[in-house]
Amino acid sequence: MAKSDYSEDLLIQAPTVELLEEQLGWDTVFAQDDEDFGANSRLGRSDDSEVVLSREVMVALKRLNPGLPQEAYDQALMQVLQDDITKTLIALNEEKYKLLRDGVPVKYRTTDKNGSGRLVDKRLRLIDFDRPDNNRYLAVRELWVRGRLWLRRPDVIGYVNGLPLVFIELKRFEVHIDSAYKKNYSDYLDTIPHLFHWNALVVISNGHDAQYASITSTREHFYRWKRLDEDDPEPGKDQPLLPILLAGMLDKTRLLDIVENFVLFDSSDGGAHKIVARNHQYLGVNRVIARLTSDDPTIQAEVRAGQLGVFWHTQGSGKSYSML
Which of 64, 206, 236, 318 is most buried, judged by most C-beta within 10 A? Predict the structure, then answer.
């Protein structure tokens, strides 16, 4: 194998996207030098400054909210694309998150047979959280993104219905994972911050180690996802963590569950923090919910006896948060 074959792309990026595609059902696109622009182009971007795939968003709006006048869809898309340079990144991210979870508010007028109608207030869904397979998941490799001054090319961006929810930065095995944080991710936050307006998860990895966090997390608050189930054993010292993280967090059902139910914004100490649940918190909460809703008489007896409980504790901002 030639030296050039030991590339980050061949050894890390390609297997990552292959796992997303073959095991988790994502669509994939390699965009680096094979992207044109325009409404009918591969991704539908008008230029390389766009990070939201407007065409995909519009398709999802019409599929998830059928039968509405075009003006309702246009209003929703306008809010999705809206930017406010006076707001901080975390303020914009929280604003977009509310649209993601609660829907986009629009107003439109119905028309009856007499030519009149009534004004309707409605929230349009961007994602179908109840049916994960009723959404489109697209992993885009090497997407050129232009900021106000600089052009950057993140390794993998995970889109759901055209919204860039997942950022993945990858390094070669022999490169310490810190390099992905210090040399790439931190730079992108400064140079192409609009890529993170919709971000739900930041993932960094060198193929062996793999860690995740939110956009406000400092380096020490990146965590590992080591188990797919609470009963799984601790991974061995030489076991790669990236496949476990991808399967545990980017499985369609798990990703939407994390986004909808395991994200918290907190400003109680005067600063703004976005917190994503840790591995054991996610598994523990869902295990308790499964037991609470179980039809098993033995488990229901434990529920009535008050023997079930869980506490989501996070140190991301030095606080504890009760989940149940």
Answer: 206
Alpha carbon distance 308, 67 (integer Å): 44
Alpha helices in the chain (DSSP H): 8, 14-22, 54-64, 70-81, 89-102, 178-179, 186-191, 242-249, 252-261, 279-292, 297-304
Q: Which residue has the tokens 């309702």?
A: 72
Q: What is the pLDDT of residue 291?
A: 73
The amino acid sitting at 271 is: G
Sign of CA dihedral 74, 80, 83, 86: positive
Q: Which residue has the tokens 């898309």?
A: 77
Q: What's the predicted TM-score (pTM) here? A: 0.89
pLDDT band at 323 (very low <50, low <70, confident <90, very high): very low
- Does residue 119 contact residue 107 with C-beta atoms inside 8 Å? yes
Supply the DSSP string of 187-252, one letter for each residue.
HHHHH-GGGGTT--EEEEE-SSSEEEE-TT--GGG-B----SSTTSPPPPTTS-SHHHHHHHHSSH
pLDDT in tens, 283-316: 999 888 877 775 656 555 555 555 555 444 444 4
DSSP letters for 56-75: HHHHHHHHHSTT--HHHHHH
b/e map 213-246, b = 16+ CB within 10 Å = bbbbbeeebbbebbbbeeeeeeeeeeebbbbbbb
Q: 3-class DSSP state for residue 77?
A: helix
Residue 155 in contact with residue 168, Cβ under 8 Å?
yes
What pLDDT digit, counting tens, does each position of 63-95 carry?
999 999 999 999 999 999 999 989 999 999 999
What is the reported pLDDT for 109? 85
Alpha carbons 68 and 120: distance in angstroms, whole number: 11
